[in-house]
Amino acid sequence: AQSVSQHNHHVILSEAASLELGCNYSYGGTVNLFWYVQYPGQHLQLLLKYFSGDPLVKGIKGFEAEFIKSKFSFNLRKPSVQWSDTAEYFCAVRSSGGSYIPTFGRGTSLIVHP
Amino acid sequence: NAGVTQTPKFRILKIGQSMTLQCAQDMNHNYMYWYRQDPGMGLKLIYYSVGAGITDKGEVPNGYNVSRSTTEDFPLRLELAAPSQTSVYFCAIGDRGEQYFGPGTRLTVT
Q1: d(CA A6, CA B83)
Q2: Do A102 and B97 count as a contact with CB atoms less than 8 A apart?
Q3: Cβ neighbours, 10 Å, residue B23
Q4: Which residues in chain B are contacts of A92 at CB distance < 8 A?
Q5: How far apart are CA A67 and CA A83, in angstroms?
Q6: For residues A68 and A58, is the Cβ–Cβ distance under 8 A?
Q7: Residues of chain A found within 8 Å of residue B31, distances taken between Cβ atoms
Q8: Which residues lie across from B86 on neighbouring strands?
Q9: Is the CB of A60 inside 8 Å of chain B's CB atoms?
């Protein structure tokens, strides 16, 4: 069974700092990859996704993620965070030839101080 | 187009009571899911459905039941509420891993 690891459980940054959240998965085949964001008190929303093609994926609000197949990673980045980026971030992986149900990581809580 | 709606938003139950969490979608999607979210634990899949009349267990189905009589509705039933079921419950739709979530139901069992 596939698994997803998010190594940073809590991240605290000041505004304008750069962000990188790690995501590693344990499936060796072809995968679809996702990052979801959950703002305080809200539901999860899709931030960006990768199915195929350019491994550098651009999402909403200036976020991007890079798929590195050799490292089984899909790290989320943003060059300059804002206070409004305070949220919980979830990585999710689905094996593209298998179940349509994604496996979610446990999430990373990001707090951005103004 | 409301997407995915859930009712109620909040509920407090006493131990042993029962209730149904409602989930409805207007996107005509076949795949629907119920998750629970506990602090620091991410999302756990409770049940899912691939279409009307078809449901299956997820990772943590014990204490819950579902039905799917229509494409639009996917209610989640708690028969004998226990404190361990205190959580936030999310309904979602989607396939190929891309999911759209409802606003959630915050349930407290005391």
Answers
A1: 28
A2: yes
A3: 25
A4: 97
A5: 26
A6: no
A7: 100
A8: none
A9: no
Count contacts between A and B (CB, < 8 Å).
50
Mapping DSSP to helix (H, G, I), strand (E, B) and coil, where does residue A84 land?
helix
Kindly list the residues from chain B whose CB atom is less than 8 angstroms away from the CB atom of residue A93.
97
Q: How far apart are CA A61 and CA B33, in angstroms?
A: 27
Question: Chain B residue with minimal CA distance to A4?
Answer: B42
How far is A29 from A97, CA to CA, in rounded Å? 8
Contacts of B102 (CB under 8 A, 6+ apart): A43, B3, B4, B5, B6, B23, B90, B91, B92
SS3 A62: helix
CB contact under 8 A, B102 and A100: no
Mean pLDDT of A12-30: 93
pLDDT tens column, B57-83: 999 999 999 999 999 999 999 999 999
* C-alpha distance across the termini of chain A, in Å: 41
> Does the CB of A9 have a partner CB in chain B at under 8 Å?
yes
Instruction: Name which of A100, A98, A40 is nearest B88 in CA terms.
Output: A40
Q: Give tens-digit pLDDT for B16-52.
A: 999 999 999 999 999 999 999 998 888 999 999 999 9
